[in-house]
Amino acid sequence: MLKRILFLITVILAMGAFVNADETAQNAAPEALNIAVADDFAPVAQELGKEFAHLGGMPVKFTVGSSEELLQMIKKGQQFDVFMSANTDYPVDLEKSGLTEGSPEVYAIGSLALYAKGKELTHNGLDVLQPGGFTSLGVAEPKMSPYGVAAIETLKKLEIYEQVQNQIVYGDSAEDVLRMVEAGKVEASLVSYGDLGDEQKSKAWIVPGRMHNPIEQSLVALKGGNPAATQRWITFIESDTAKSILISSGYGITNVEKVEE
User: Fold this and answer.
1) For residues 29 and 150, what is the distance between their CA atoms, to the nearest angstrom?
2) Domain ranges of the chain
């Protein structure tokens, strides 16, 4: 009889343990993937994050800033799982500093566009990018944005940089110079096509890729992060679903590939 009583007590305790464990699992908040993303790519990243979670991935928390700002945060010890930069240089920098798990990988190709609020530039953008074609031109700071680098390369390719450099107004990022033109602070801006809304895209001129070097954007997994979740994110970025979102947002796509230093 005593053995039977002890057996029943043991079963009851075990059942209680299972119930408590199940309740804990149900009440626990799902873990989030923590991603540092360049502000130029943030709107698309948010859309990708929602789809990733919807498909059974996990919630995604984005910290948004310029690639330069995020680089410095990571170097100072701020913890993220993934860094999605607007260029390839900064992820390579982190790899050389021993702060990454693996090598950077290209996830998208950015497109440069000329945009002027309320103006139709789709077919005559090249006419505007001439001396006398504008009074002021917003350009992202080349030291902080690959779109700024591409913008200056374009102006030099057109052999007008020397004539118009005094009319250039620099912003911190491509998103910043888009805000500048919308606010009327500059007449036109060279921006990231992916940052434009549908109506803005319908009036913007996409700068031909031959006028500047490719705007390769890369991501890298960071040390101290969640490697399993990070790999799920990278696999998702390679998927047709993610590529469809990238294309519809104005980005060129590539199979996720290693960045060549």
Assistant:
1) 43
2) 33-110+216-258, 112-206
Cα separation values, 159 from 120, 142, 152, 170, Å: 24, 18, 10, 19
CATH-assigned architecture of domain 112-206: 3-Layer(aba) Sandwich (3.40)
Assign domain 33-110+216-258 to its CATH superfamily.
Periplasmic binding protein-like II (3.40.190.10)
By DSSP bridging, strand 112-115 and strand 188-192 are antiparallel
Token pair, residue 144, equals 């902080």
Q: How does pLDDT run along the chain (261 residues), one tens digit per residue? A: 444 443 433 333 333 333 333 333 334 445 889 999 998 899 999 999 999 999 977 899 999 998 989 999 999 999 999 999 999 999 999 999 999 999 999 999 999 999 999 899 988 898 899 999 999 999 999 988 899 999 999 999 999 999 999 999 999 889 999 999 999 999 999 999 999 999 999 999 999 999 999 999 999 999 999 999 999 999 999 999 999 999 999 898 765 445 555
Length of the chain: 261
